[in-house]
Amino acid sequence: MTKKKNELWEWTKALLIAVILAAVIRYFLFAPIVVDGLSMMPTLKDQDRMIVNKFSYNIGEPKRFDIIVFHAPEQKDYIKRVIGLPGDTIEYKDDTLYVNGKAYKEPYLDKYKKEVQDGPLTDPFTLEEKIGRKTVPKGELFVMGDNRRFSKDSRHIGTISYDKIIGKTSFVYWPLNDAHIVTVK
């Protein structure tokens, strides 16, 4: 009887440790997220499933063109691309991104730019027109969806505070036949 009781206790401990470990990993390290909508097309598709690396920014600062997940003002989590870092000036003209006066290529937009027939993919704007400031504030980011015509992003909701960032994401794991690492080519 004692042997069975001891074996049951060992299985209970193992199960308890597994549940605690899974909770810690999900809450502090990695979490799944489902892309909801078309705002990151063509890079990410609606219902793509990704892994969010929650500790990525505990070991470093966000980088331009990272894809991040953050708490948006509407009590919803958004997934967008980092365009502007603190202190940056941002301008779009002739469908080209200018950061601090320097033109940047955005190869992830090439497919959509070729398909657009009725004007630019990204309407011209300056940061000051969108957020009322010449530069991205300290501790904040300017983010945009890749599907520029159909994305609710910093042009509409303002800059994103670092404390709203959940983490960085770059790995699509589902659907399985489309699993890949998202890169800026």
Features of this protein?
185 residues, alpha+beta, 8-stranded antiparallel beta sheet, 4-stranded antiparallel beta sheet, 4 helices, 23% helix, elongated
Report the portion of residues in β strands. Answer: 25-35%
Overall morphology: elongated
The overall average pLDDT, rounded, is 84
Task: Count the DSSP helices.
Answer: 4
Structural class: alpha+beta
SSE run: HEEEEEEEHEHEHEEE
Distance between the termini: 64 Å
Largest sheet: 8 strands, antiparallel
The portion of residues assigned to helices is: 10-25%
Taking pLDDT < 50 over at least 5 consecutive residues as the criterion, the unreliable ranges are none
Rg over CA atoms, rounded to whole Å, is: 21 Å
* Strand segment tally: 12
Describe the structure.
This protein has helices spanning 2-29, 110-115, 127-131, 154-157; strands spanning 30-34, 49-53, 67-72, 76-84, 90-93, 96-99, 102-104, 125-126, 140-144, 160-161, 165-174, 180-181. The mean pLDDT is 84. The strands form two sheets. Strands 1, 2, 3, 4, 9, 10, 11 and 12 form an eight-stranded antiparallel beta sheet that branches. A four-stranded antiparallel beta sheet has the order 7-6-5-8. It is elongated. A hairpin with a 2-residue loop joins strand 5 and strand 6. It has 185 residues and is of the alpha+beta class. It is built from four helices and twelve strands; from the N terminus they run H-E-E-E-E-E-E-E-H-E-H-E-H-E-E-E.
Question: What's a concise summary of this model?
Answer:
The protein has 185 residues and is α+β, with helices and mostly antiparallel strands. It has 4 helices and 12 strands, in the order αβββββββαβαβαβββ.
